[in-house]
Structure formats: C-alpha cells, structure tokens
C-alpha cells in the first residue's frame, strides 16, 4: 500500500500542474507534517455527492481542533462526474495554502 502522508497529489491527473508548471518550477519541495499545518488555510472542495459535505465538515473541524488549521473557503462542485470549473477552482484556492476534496456516497 502506498503511503500518501505528507504528499501533495494533483486530483486533476496533472492538467493543472502542466498549466502552472513554469510558474512553480522554482518552488522548493514541500512536505507537510502536523507541525507545519498550524495557521495554514485549507480550502475544501465538495464533489456534491451525498455524504461529502458531512465528511469535509468533520475533516475541517478535526484539522482545526488538532492542528490549528484555518478552514475555508468551502466550495461545492456543480455535478459529481464533471471536473471542477475554473471558477470553482478559483474560489476554493482563493487565500488557501492547501485544498482538500472529498468524495461522498
């Protein structure tokens, strides 16, 4: 089983990374551990499936309580099987240091 702790994963299959590759090529390698989360802002992207809102709200609460993460913005995608729109991605990343997405059902 792959250990994903502290890894940054691109859920778009690289589409966004390729588009922004040149702008971020000079950024240092970034590892997240619990001690580095305090004070960061985490955007949450709900895929609009049943249960995902509840999952993400609980995850946000735990990140705040345990690690001092500030949560928001919270954005709900228009439809589960369609990728997030550019507007939805803009809204969820605005002011965020990291973004988590959740899948319901």
For the largest beta-sheet, the strand count, sense and barrel status come to:
3 strands, parallel
Order of helices and strands: HEHEHE
By DSSP (H or I, 4+ residues per run), the number of helices equals: 3
Structural class: alpha/beta
- Outline: globular
Q: Which blocks of ≥5 consecutive residues have pLDDT under 50?
A: 22-28
Distance between the termini: 23 Å
Strand content: 15-25%
Strand order, largest beta sheet: 2-1-3
Rounded Rg: 14 Å
Can you summarize this structure?
The chain has helices at residues 15-24, 52-67, 86-93, and strands at 41-46, 70-76, 98-102.
What does this structure look like?
With 105 residues, this protein is of the alpha/beta class. It has a domain at 39-102. Helices cover 32% and strands 17% of the residues. The chain contains three helices and three strands. Strands 2-1-3 form a three-stranded parallel β-sheet, sandwiched between helices. Helix 2 links the parallel strand 1 and strand 2 (70-76). The longest helix has 16 residues, at 52-67.
Topology:
Layout: H1 15-24, E1 41-46, H2 52-67, E2 70-76, H3 86-93, E3 98-102
Descriptive key words:
globular; 17% strand; three-stranded parallel sheet; single chain; alpha/beta; 105 residues
